């Protein structure tokens, strides 16, 4: 911005209106005390093979950005994203590529667009060398003459960069930026497509998890993951030492032998639960949440692993302080006070899963969480 402290009186409005762009550029430099040391034309000889080659290189980068952006958009919407078990080798292969494809296509699009801009700036924007004495105009801001001359400077810079006459670069840059923008808009919008109240009474609703019973007398066990989706390893109270923590998932007898269902239960993002066994002395200090006084089984407490901040896994348990930690943004929850947040950005307690022991000696869930887990959505009531 011009300082307005140059020598001599300001021209009148009539004089300003009569000046062409070159005259305004010179006036702006004079008012700002600018000395142009060097202002070379990147392409003094127009239409050379080198100039055309540089233009094609820039266009190539912008077109690559457009192609990668289009690929990202198509993959986001139409690539097979639903889990496929290992037994379906072909389906699992394409499913496993979903996230890498999104990352690669989006990354290539952003990178290509950036490189195109950098190459254009290097090849076509004049690299002027100027010396200027700067002031703040005594805090008075810009005058009319300053505004007109800075606009002239900007227009002159655009003209000297030759962008006005390079329609191929402009079209390819617009295409690349537009397609990338479309993908950038589609990415957050895609996460809002599911209606949280659709199938509200089933485990497929956002209001419920895989711990939801499919019929009243169904038994949902706590199961550990051994690395083999087909292996059923249920949890007994004596399996966990005092002060210990283990991650568990839901299991139903109806899923036994069904590799797809067993693997899906382990893959579903809202299923992981932290099973914590407090030490006897710590168990006496517990403060229970109103309405959830019987959700624990003795010194055993089960909390969702999905952080109430942005949904990261609260995968750490500090035995000495009885704190549950989320490594993403350092939220901390007090396991002795119904997993209430005590540090970090999280503002809600972790949802607690009500548990007990079945007649066969294994730990089971009494029912699903009584509130939606994880971060909030627009219709959340808790």
UniProtKB/TrEMBL annotation:
SUPFAM superfamilies: ISP domain. Coiled coil: none annotated. It holds the Pfam family Rieske. Keywords: 2Fe-2S, Cell membrane, Disulfide bond, Electron transport, Iron, Iron-sulfur, Membrane, Metal-binding, Oxidoreductase, Respiratory chain, Transmembrane, Transmembrane helix, Transport. GO terms for cellular component: plasma membrane. The keyword Iron-sulfur applies. It is found in: Cell membrane. InterPro entries: QcrA_N (IPR045603), Rieske_2Fe-2S (IPR017941), Rieske_2Fe-2S_sf (IPR036922), Rieske_Fe-S_prot (IPR014349). It is a multi-pass membrane protein. GO terms for molecular function: 2 iron, 2 sulfur cluster binding; metal ion binding; monooxygenase activity; oxidoreductase activity, acting on paired donors, with incorporation or reduction of molecular oxygen. It comes from the Bacteria. Belongs to the Rieske iron-sulfur protein family. Iron-sulfur subunit of the cytochrome bc1 complex, an essential component of the respiratory electron transport chain required for ATP synthesis. The bc1 complex catalyzes the oxidation of menaquinol and the reduction of cytochrome c in the respiratory chain. The bc1 complex operates through a Q-cycle mechanism that couples electron transfer to generation of the proton gradient that drives ATP synthesis. This is Cytochrome bc1 complex Rieske iron-sulfur subunit.
């Amino acid at each position: 911005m011009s300082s307005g402290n140059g020598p001599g009186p300001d021209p009148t409005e009539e004089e300003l209106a009569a000046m062409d762009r070159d005259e305004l550029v010179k006036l702006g430099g004079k008012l700002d005390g600018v000395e142009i040391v060097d202002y070379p034309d990147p392409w003094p000889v127009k239409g050379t093979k080198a100039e055309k080659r540089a233009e094609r290189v820039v266009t190539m980068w912008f077109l690559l950005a457009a192609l990668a952006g289009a690929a990202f958009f198509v993959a986001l919407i139409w690539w097979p994203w639903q889990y496929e078990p290992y037994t379906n080798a072909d389906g699992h292969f394409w499913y496993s590529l979903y996230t890498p494809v999104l990352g690669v296509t989006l990354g290539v699009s952003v990178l290509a667009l950036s490189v195109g801009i950098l190459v254009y700036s290097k090849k076509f924007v004049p690299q002027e060398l100027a010396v200027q004495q700067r002031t703040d105009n005594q805090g008075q801001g810009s005058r009319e003459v300053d505004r007109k001359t800075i606009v002239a400077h900007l227009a002159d810079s655009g003209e000297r960069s030759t962008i006005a006459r390079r329609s191929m670069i402009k079209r390819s840059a617009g295409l690349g930026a537009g397609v990338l923008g479309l993908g950038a808009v589609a990415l957050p919008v895609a996460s809002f497509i599911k209606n949280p109240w659709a199938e509200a009474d089933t485990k497929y609703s956002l209001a419920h998890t895989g711990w939801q019973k499919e019929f009243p007398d169904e038994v949902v066990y706590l199961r550990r993951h051994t690395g083999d989706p087909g292996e059923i390893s249920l949890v007994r109270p004596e399996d966990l030492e005092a002060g210990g923590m283990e991650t568990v998932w839901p299991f139903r007898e109806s899923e036994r032998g069904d590799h797809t269902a067993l693997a899906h239960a382990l893959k579903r993002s809202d299923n992981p639960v932290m099973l914590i066994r407090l030490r006897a002395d710590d168990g006496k200090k517990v403060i229970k949440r109103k309405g959830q006084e019987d959700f624990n089984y003795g010194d055993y407490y089960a909390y969702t692993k999905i952080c109430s901040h942005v949904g990261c896994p609260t995968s750490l348990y500090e035995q000495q302080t009885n704190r549950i930690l989320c490594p993403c943004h350092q939220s901390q929850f007090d396991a002795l006070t119904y997993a209430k947040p005590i540090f970090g950005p999280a503002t809600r307690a972790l949802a607690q899963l009500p548990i007990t022991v079945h007649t066969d000696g294994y730990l089971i869930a009494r029912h699903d969480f009584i509130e939606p887990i994880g971060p909030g959505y627009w219709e959340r009531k808790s």
